[in-house]
Amino acid sequence: MSAVATTTTGGRAVAHALAAHGVEVVWGIPGTHNLEIYAGLSAAGIRHLSPRHEQGAGFAADGYSRVTGRPGVCVTTSGPAVLNAATALGQAYSDSIPVLLVAAGMPLRAPGLGNGELHETKDLVGALDGIVAYTHRVTSVAEIPVAVAQAFARMATGRPRPVVIEIPLDVLAEEGEVRAVPAPPPPVLAPPPSAVDAAAALLSHAHRPALLAGGGASRAAAEVRLVAERLGAPVACSINGKGTVAEDHPLSVGAGYAAAAVRDLVDDSDAVLVVGSELAPADLWLGPLDLGGKVVRIDVDPAQAVTNAVPAVSIVADAGLALGALLDELGAGEDFEPGDLDAPGVARAARFREALRTEARASAAPWADLLDGLAAALGRDGIVVADNAMVAYNGALGALSAYHPRSFLFPTGYGTLGYAVPAAIGAKIGRPRDRVVALSGDGGLMFTVGELAAGAQAGIALPVVVSDNRGYGEIRREMTERGDPLLGVDFASPDFAALGRALGCHGVVAEDRAALDEALERAFAADRPTVIHVPE
Ligand SMILES: Cc1ncc(C[n+]2csc(CCOP(=O)(O)OP(=O)(O)O)c2C)c(N)n1
Ligand SMILES: [Mg+2]
Question: Which of 169, 289, 389, 513 fits as disulfide partner to 369, beta carbons 3.0 to 4.6 Å?
């Protein structure tokens, strides 16, 4: 039986439909074209947070999604607002994060395209279609609840990725009849038994197994650990997988596939189980791993399961279900005792872990004090939201331990700058009781520096640690390595602490470890973000 019809405007129908799908918070910027959505938001009980640029909205929704496991939602007006959000959606696509953008669009009916309407773009949905997993332009008020339900269904099915719904501005303004469309039950992709049998056979015959866990494994952390313990397999995590197995677990090797130690582990192994991992060039840096004939892949995305490494066996399924079935098939083993140094795989894991740590400590040496300070302040339960800066991928990734999945957020594949502050705001809104730190370079901070004002307005305790090498350090290094003249990579830093204060935050300079420790503790107790400027 269909639900009762109500008469409402398109904009209010959007707000209502979002609330019906459990949306509690949206990041957005109002404009002439989306006012009717805004009129509906508070009536629908949805909290609205104000980024200072739509790219900040997208990153905040992404950070929120990563730490809560729920879709993050942004609301924008049309044209330039959508293109401003596009980079953040590209980042969410490449890291498989569900983010929904609801945008106003050009009118459905005349005056139509080409007459110079405000924010007119030749083909906005077409442009976004080249960036996200799915776009849809709504054509009637009645369709809105269906379109929103479809968007949520798509984000909950298979590989989670960003989606865009565009609603023409005349459809937002006009009235129509709508009927509620509930969310379908979350679909689960069960593993085919024959694939599980084949995987169990290959893995149980291995003498030296290993497990690689990507971002797609993060929601199956318990199963990943149990399978690793059952197989006696050392575990290395990708950047997005970091923390899926706690980095003080006896079978943990650490994070970052670019480490020579991970390559050595793979070479030393006669079977490798890869769970929810792209094995992407953006993770590997030094070329593909040699996995020929010995890799079992578990992936929810059948296309991904054959990309970057051809599997000997693949299980296309939800990671938790596939690993659960694999455990059943492998049968009960001896209980894993964390203190047992003779447990299978533990000595091997320790060897590769020590190698990775030595490597990581060397590459992180310029930031050793900073990272030690963060480790002490964050404990086991903190969350680091990092930018695409050397302090993150040469520093924190290998040298700052993670103990929980999705406790190290990083703009991996797409590799954009300006992620840290807005994504950290999203993470802190999603997990208000946890300690969240934004970790940025000086260059990346300036890409979305306005979001400090958004953090101040939201009143959140958020240390924003800026590791300042006065320029685009990574690119400076690459130009130097090539023997090129340095061009466009050196610049004077602003007074970051004063800049933070000007934007409504606290701001301090931390010249040494003691000053950093004090600044972090104060920042966690504050009613607003604190910019902590750490000159390198
Ligand atoms: C949107 C975007 N523009 C340009 C780049 C190229 N890029 C990569 S790293 C980098 C330097 C970043 O500087 P900073 O944030 O200070 O970090 P550092 O490299 O100094 O550690 C640049 C410009 C990029 N990754 N993303
Ligand atoms: Mg820099």
Answer: 513
